[in-house]
Amino acid sequence: MNENEQPVHPAPLAGAPRAIILFGPPGSGKGTQAKLLKESLSVPHISTGDMLRERIASGDPLGLEVQALMQAGKLVPDETVNRLVHERVRAKDCAGGFVLDGYPRTIPQAKVLEAELLRLGYQPVVIHLKVDYTKIIARIAGRRQCPVCGSLYNLTSHPPKQPELCDLDGARLMVRDDDREQVVRARLEAYERQTQPLLEFFAASGRPFHEVDGNDGSPTAILERVRALLG
Fold first, then answer.
1. Which of 86, 101, 162, 204 could make a disulfide contact with 34, Cβ separation 3.0–4.6 Å?
2. Catalytic annotation on 111?
3. Catalytic one among 83, 111, 119, 176?
4. Residues 127, 23: contact at Cβ < 8 Å?
5. What percent of the chain is predicted at pLDDT more than 90?
6. Is 176 a catalytic site residue?
7. What is the pTM of this model?
8. Domain spans of the chain?
9. What digits encode the pLDDT tens for the residues 121-177?
């Protein structure tokens, strides 16, 4: 192959198992949709965060390597995360497809993933859950937690019976640091910087790419929108 030529990967056959790559900003309900898709499609939900924690708990060489990196405050390199994902998608329970959550996070990861999925005979399908950032900020900033029993509330969707007091023990509710508006805005800005290039990459790839309105409706209603797009 000429060094200027790009490798050609075969397109998956019709009816190939789908690798659903799920994107959504913090507070969009992406985790809930991943679990609902897992249940409704009867396929595994592959979360890179869960995989990293499981490997650390296993104590195998790769898990120890990941643990050392994370304890040192370093990012787990692309090569290591790629290895974890590639091992997981080759497992027998993924033969009928799967939902991928939290990966890829970089363009190099996306390129490696796409090539690997096509080589293994999967059809990559990207689902981008779109939610207005003002709604996300209002949703997350409205969260409250009891410092005594840990009960969670939301001032809009699940308010306490007495303002700012826990229903169970009467303790004054608190705002978690991660739920403060300035922190939420910073997380959303970081997500935008990291994810927009990935969305553009997949949108230009010619593979199925769908954007789903997640602003309104119950999680089940949003799931139905996703299912309709998946056919």
1. 101
2. no
3. 176
4. yes
5. 68
6. yes
7. 0.83
8. 18-224
9. 999 999 999 999 999 998 888 999 999 999 999 998 899 999 999 999 999 999 998
Whether residue 30 lies in the annotated active site: yes
Which residue among the candidates 38, 135, 187, 225 is catalytic per the annotation? 187
From 30, 55, 88, 144, the catalytic residue: 30
Give the residue from 14, 24, 12, 22 showing the smallest Cα distance to 214. 24
Residues 6+ apart with CB under 8 A from 48: 81, 84, 85, 101, 102, 103
Question: Hey, what amino acid is at 133?
Answer: Y
Active-site pick, 35, 53, 105, 225: 105
Instruction: Give the CATH number of domain 18-224; options: 3.40.50.2000, 3.40.50.300, 3.30.830.10, 3.40.50.1820.
Output: 3.40.50.300
* Placement of tokens 């985790």 in the chain: 31
